[in-house]
Amino acid sequence: MFCICFFFIHLIRFLLQEEYVNFDPQVLELIKDAQYLSKLGLDIPETATTLLRPEEQIRQTSVNLQELLNDIKHAYASIPKDMSQLFKPHREKVEEALRPGFVAITWSSLTIEEYITNVRQELEQLRILINDCTDILQCRIENSLQTIAEIQLCEPQNDPITLDDNLNMQMAK
Predict the structure, then answer these.
(1) DSSP state of 106
(2) Which member of 38, 73, 108, 123 lies 3.0 to 4.6 Å from 7 by CB, making a disulfide possible if both were Cys?
């Protein structure tokens, strides 16, 4: 019964405001048990044999999905706080690409690799945008503002000076 149900479970679930790979490690235990029973020559349910064939694929898909979700978390964390609202539409594109894993794609779907590739492409576009914006913000804007803040336009004087004296002092620099 567990084997049949596994193939109809969606790839990703949402729990406590965070996405998780919807994969129970006990599935791998079940696969190992079925392998051992098969090697002993014992009969195993047909549903369990359906899990034996794609064992490595199931394991690799689980790892790929976990890495993908971790990459998404890291990308979101690297968005500058001042620019988080500007990135909202771009984050929504990634979430839109991720959505089929919540509602349509199951562990038995033939389009899992295509799905992962699609989400990775959207994520890569977001990363490029984050890197470009962070570069502009840090290297151009913040450095320019820092330089402007450090420029001393005139030296403060203890005594009042006339406009002509101030002009002559500035021209001498």
Answers:
(1) B
(2) 108
Paired tokens of 38:
């098969």
Give the SS3 label for residue 54.
Answer: coil
Q: How many CB atoms lie within 10 A of CB 125?
A: 14
For residue 155, what are the contacts with CB-CB under 8 A and spacing of at least 6? 169
What does the DSSP 8-state code read for residue 20? E
User: For 82-120, how does the pLDDT look when each residue is reduced to its tens digit (9 = 90+)?
Assistant: 899 999 999 999 999 999 988 888 877 888 899 999 999
Residue whose token pair is 């996405």: 19
Residues in the chain: 173
- Tokens 């909202």 label which residue? 88
Higher per-residue confidence, 99 vs 49: 99
pTM for this one? 0.69
Measured between alpha carbons, how far is 76 from 126 in angstroms, rounded to an integer? 9
pLDDT average, residue stretch 64-93? 93
